[in-house]
TrEMBL record:
It comes from Actinosynnema mirum (strain ATCC 29888 / DSM 43827 / JCM 3225 / NBRC 14064 / NCIMB 13271 / NRRL B-12336 / IMRU 3971 / 101). This is 4-phytase. Its EC number is 3.1.3.26. Residues 91-475 form the Solute-binding protein family domain. One of its GO terms (biological process) is peptide transport. One of its GO terms (molecular function) is peptide transmembrane transporter activity. GO terms for cellular component: ATP-binding cassette (ABC) transporter complex; periplasmic space. Keywords: Hydrolase, Signal. It is an enzyme of class 3 (hydrolase).
Amino acid sequence: MRRTTSTLAIAGFTAGAIVLSACSGTSGQSTGSGGTDGAPVKGGTVQVLQATDFSYLDPSRGWDGGVNSFYRLIYRQLITKAPADAANPNEMVPDLAESLGTPSADGLTWTYKLKDGIKFDTGAPITAQDVKFGITRSWDPEIGIGAPYLKQLVDAPADYQGPYRSGDLPTIETPDERTIVFRLKAPFPEFDAVLSMPTGTPFPVGTGGGDSFIKDVIASGPYDVKSFTPGSKIELVRNPNWDAATDTARKAYPDAWNFVIGVDRATIDERLIAGQGSDVNAVAATVQTATIARIQTPQLKERTVKEPSTCTTYMGLNTTKGPLADVKVRQAINYAVDKSAVLNATGGNQFATVSTTILPSSVTGYSQYDLYPSKDNAGDVEKAKQLLAEAGHANGFPLVLDVRSNPVAQRQAESIQQSLQKIGIEVKLNVIDVATYYETIATPSVQNDAAITGWCPDWASSASTFLPPLFDGRKITDKGNQNLSQINDPAINAAIDANIAETDLDKATKAWGELDKQVMELAPIVPLNVENRIYLPGSNVTGFHAPGGDVDYAILGLKDAGKA
């Protein structure tokens, strides 16, 4: 689960308890043909320009969008997300496994069979024992700081601390070299998605302790690390022991990849616009807001790709605070907020799309509705005043809004401040340093009336890592609390349980969409917008896709392998 706050600033944020749901559904569609015209050819070197280093090269440690895209080049798991150009890029597909998992009748046991011909970069075969070893590394208290789901789901002893400290884990069984069996604490219909997380990466038994992986990354994907200079450069070359016949998710067109790290973001935009030398083969993260006006020329617009993200920016309303405990007050605020003004504060419709739902359209389970409509999304002041009067607050009241010390976030907050002033709610902005913002708003004892924040799911094939952490009242904690509204509604809690228990994933998908609307009837948040990610791939790049905002490097390539 990932917290985010508008305009391209994402922070990893783990929740305290596992949450779940469905697979299959729709995905947001990209606009613009940039980077997608023409079929990629085999060969050449793609250059990736980035301002910051990856969090970790160890898949048991890393857990954010940028590094997950990188991992797809060098690591494989039993299950993975479908290629980004698939009809449903949110779908889970077999990777090292022959098929999706086979659950037992009671849902407590999941069995997988490995494909033939899968190898590490050393040439050694990848066995079930290697998969188990790699997975159990995530229980190590120092190494296992990445995705927590396997630790939360697998029925491991409470004192188990991974293979280096505790040895074997009996609840993951390997009856032979190609079979692996997981025993769970409770049924979890989306266990395939859990195994697609980086923590599902195999390691040869006995390897990967401490920081040894930095000197010799053990690759299972189509590329291996040739050189790594932290904070400066990563060079990838082909893994000669990767067999394309065993891998339907990765095309691996380029011969090599150069990740150039530590480049100022403004400089990256300038280089992509100029498109000179090797930069014709370059890709990067989203362009900055200030660059948007400069890429409106016909030539640059042809290269531009706009993708809706899987993240919703919203204002959480603390239902334990004074007038906000009244649903009519919260509904009034939903009516009053001028979302078009917030959109402009975010950067305009190039950078975001107004949201009336909790789930973005790029997350499976999304269902379109608008419970608090207004003309041009500019707010319905009269309806809001009516509801406030019915709640006994015709003259309004004071409200403290927590906001990050970030220019975009503060512009959004000022826009909301102006909207609510029209209905008599006087908003005071409490600006919090970016470094401590998430920790602060996730501590109920210091959280104020409202906060502008956002949420991204860990896998978009379901709303299971979206709605439960935000609205399950039983998961409210003193620290690291994700339910910022602190809503604890028995009907919502029961619906979450029912959706989790639903083994028919199509039914679960529909149920999550219905729960989205059920939650918004109580108005614990104000959905504001869904970010768009704007990319400007080099002119020689093709096959560029980033559904949900994460670039799929595994299917990207060049139009001319000999260029630059």
